[in-house]
Design brief:
two-stranded parallel ribbon, 8 strands, about 475 residues, alpha/beta
C-alpha cells in the first residue's frame, strides 16, 4: 500500500568478506505532520524488528495507520511489484544493488523502501538532499566505515531522499564509496534521473519508475480507511471528487480524508456528501509541480494540441495549467512561440493576436485577462498550420555553421565613403523599386558560387499558398533574365 511517509529500506548485500550479510534500517519521519526531519537519521539495534502499524492508535497519521505490512498489501505499482516483475524479483532474490526510485509524490517510493527493509538487518542512513550537504555525506561514510570495521560487521545502505536536489559535486561524492562497496546507494526522486542525476551515478544504479495511482487504487485506499473506522461513510459523488482531487497521489488523498474526518467529528456527521465536501475543501487547486516534469509534460500536451488543430484539447490543457497554478505570463510567452513555430506565415495574424493577448493579460490580470489567452489558444488551434519558416530558419543556421563565412558580393556591399565607392563597393547594384513590378529580375543576392539552398518552402495552406505562387512567378522572371 502506497501510503507511508517514512524512510525504510533494505537489501541483502553479498560482497567480499560479507556474503549474505543482512542489511536493514528503520528511520521514520512523519511528513503529514509537517517538517521533513533531520538531514540524516539512523535508528538500528541488532536483532530488533519493526513494530507493526497499529490501526487503533488514533493519534498516528492515517498514512502510518494504513502502512502495509507486506508486499501483498501494497496498492498500485503492479508493473514493478506484481509476480515476476522487476522490483519484486530483486526484493525476493535478496541481491543488493544501488537503485533510484523515480515517480511523482505520493505513489509509494518510501513505502516500497520500508517493505524492503523488513526482511533484513543492518545499518541504514538517510540523507535529505533538501537539508543535507557534503558534510552529511562525510558523516554517512564515517558511520558506514565504523559499521563495516566493528566487532559485528554490518553493511550500510545510504538512502538519499529528493536526490535531484543535490548538485553535481555532491552527487559525485557518493561515487567512490558506491564503487568500493562501502554502502549501497538508494535514491528517491520526483524528477527525471536522466536530467537530474549525474550519468556516472546513474550508470551504477537501476532505475525503477513508479506511476501515479489509478482511480481503482485510490478507491481501495478509501475503503481501507473506512474499514478501520478512520473516516465516516463517503457517498459516491464525494468519493469521485476526492479521487479526482487526489490526482494519483495517495498522500494527498489520505491527508484530505484526515481533514474530512476531523471536520465530520466536530459536526457529528455520519457521512461525507458532495456538497459538504465542497464546503470543507473550498476551491483547492489540483497538484501542480511547477518547473518539474509534470509541468513540462502538460505544456507539451498544450503545444501539441494546438499544432494538431484540436481546440477542445488545447483549451483543456490550457485550463489544466491555469488550474494548477501555472503563471499566465509563461503561458502567454508559449503561445507567442506557437504562433511563430506552428502557424507562421500560413496566418501572420496569429502572431499579432498572441502578442495582443499577452498585452491584454498584462493590463487586466487574473481572471479577466485569462479569457484573452483562451481566445488566442482557440485561434492558434484552428489557424492553418505551417512550420516552413521554422524549418527554414533551422536549416539556414545549420548551413551557416557548417559552411563558414563567404564574402559579401561587391554589388551588395555598403559604400558610405568615396574610398569604398572607388573600390567598387555597391557598383552595379540594381535598386528594386526602380525596376518593373518592383523586382530586379535576374539579380543575385547570394554569395558567389553558392547554389540556391532552398531553405524556405511554403506549404499549401493558408497565406503560404499565395506566397508559393508569388515565389514561383519570381523564379520564372529570374530564369528569363538570367
Amino acid at each position: 500500500m502506497v501510503v507511508a511517509t517514512g524512510l525504510i529500506l533494505g537489501r541483502v548485500f553479498p560482497s567480499s568478506g560479507h556474503c549474505g550479510q543482512i542489511v536493514c534500517f528503520v528511520h521514520f519521519v512523519c511528513a503529514l505532520r509537517g517538517g521533513s526531519g533531520p538531514a540524516w537519521g539512523l535508528r538500528h539495534n541488532a536483532g530488533s524488528e519493526l513494530p507493526p502499524a497499529d490501526v487503533n492508535t488514533p493519534h498516528l497519521p492515517l498514512a502510518e495507520r494504513l502502512r502495509p505490512g507486506t508486499l501483498a498489501d501494497v496498492i498500485g505499482q503492479r508493473q514493478l511489484l506484481g509476480e515476476g516483475m522487476a522490483l519484486r524479483l530483486a526484493f525476493e532474490s535478496g541481491q543488493p544493488h544501488s537503485c533510484i526510485l523515480w515517480g511523482p509524490p505520493g505513489v509509494g517510493k518510501t513505502t516500497i523502501a520500508r517493505l524492503m527493509a523488513d526482511a533484513f538487518d543492518a545499518q541504514f542512513i538517510t540523507i535529505s538532499a533538501v537539508l543535507g550537504g557534503v558534510k552529511d555525506i562525510r558523516e554517512a561514510v564515517e558511520r558506514a566505515e565504523a559499521a563495516r570495521d566493528g566487532l559485528q560487521a554490518q553493511r550500510t545502505i545510504v538512502f538519499v531522499d529528493e536526490v535531484h536536489r543535490f548538485n553535481k559535486s555532491q552527487q559525485d561524492a557518493f561515487l567512490p564509496h558506491v564503487e568500493s562497496g562501502l554502502f549501497t546507494f538508494i535514491g528517491a526522486t520526483t524528477e527525471n534521473p536522466s536530467f537530474e542525476v549525474n550519468s556516472a551515478l546513474l550508470s551504477r544504479a537501476a532505475v525503477y519508475v513508479l506511476q501515479p495511482l489509478t482511480e481503482d487504487d485510490l478507491r481501495q485506499l478509501v475503503l481501507r480507511a473506512r474499514t478501520i473506522g478512520a473516516v465516516p461513510e463517503v457517498e459516491k459523488p464525494a468519493e469521485d471528487r476526492l479521487i479526482a482531487y487526489a490526482d494519483g497521489d495517495a498522500r494527498r488523498l489520505l491527508n484530505t480524508l484526515e481533514t474530512l474526518a476531523v471536520a465530520a467529528g466536530r459536526e457529528k456527521r455520519e457521512r461525507v456528501t458532495d456538497d459538504w465536501l465542497l464546503k470543507v475543501l473550498g476551491e483547492r487547486m489540483r497538484r501542480y509541480d511547477k518547473g518539474g516534469e509534470q509541468f513540462y509534460d502538460t505544456i507539451s500536451a498544450l503545444h501539441k494540441s494546438v499544432r494538431g488543430s484540436d481546440p477542445d484539447a488545447a483549451l483543456y490543457w490550457f485550463v489544466r495549467m491555469l488550474d494548477g497554478g501555472a503563471d499566465p505570463r509563461y503561458l502567454a510567452r508559449r503561445l507567442i512561440r506557437m504562433a511563430s513555430e506552428d502557424i507562421g506565415l500560413a496566418d501572420p495574424r496569429a502572431l499579432r493576436l498572441a502578442l495582443d493577448a499577452a498585452e491584454v493579460y498584462e493590463r487586466l490580470g487574473t481572471p479577466e485577462g485569462e479569457l484573452a489567452l483562451a481566445e488566442c489558444v482557440v485561434y492558434l488551434a484552428v489557424a492553418p498550420k505551417s512550420n516552413a519558416v521554422y524549418k527554414a530558419f533551422n536549416e539556414a543556421k545549420a548551413f551557416v555553421k557548417k559552411d563558414g563565412s563567404r564574402p559579401v558580393p561587391m554589388h551588395l556591399r555598403n559604400a558610405p565613403t568615396q574610398l569604398m565607392k572607388d573600390l567598387d563597393y555597391g557598383k552595379a547594384y540594381r535598386y528594386a523599386h526602380d525596376e518593373a513590378g518592383g523586382f530586379a529580375a535576374g539579380e543575385r543576392y547570394l554569395p558567389e558560387g553558392m547554389a540556391d539552398p532552398g531553405f524556405y518552402r511554403p506549404v499549401p495552406r493558408g497565406l503560404e499558398i499565395r506566397i508559393a505562387d508569388k515565389l514561383s512567378e519570381l523564379r520564372r522572371l529570374n530564369d528569363q533574365n538570367s
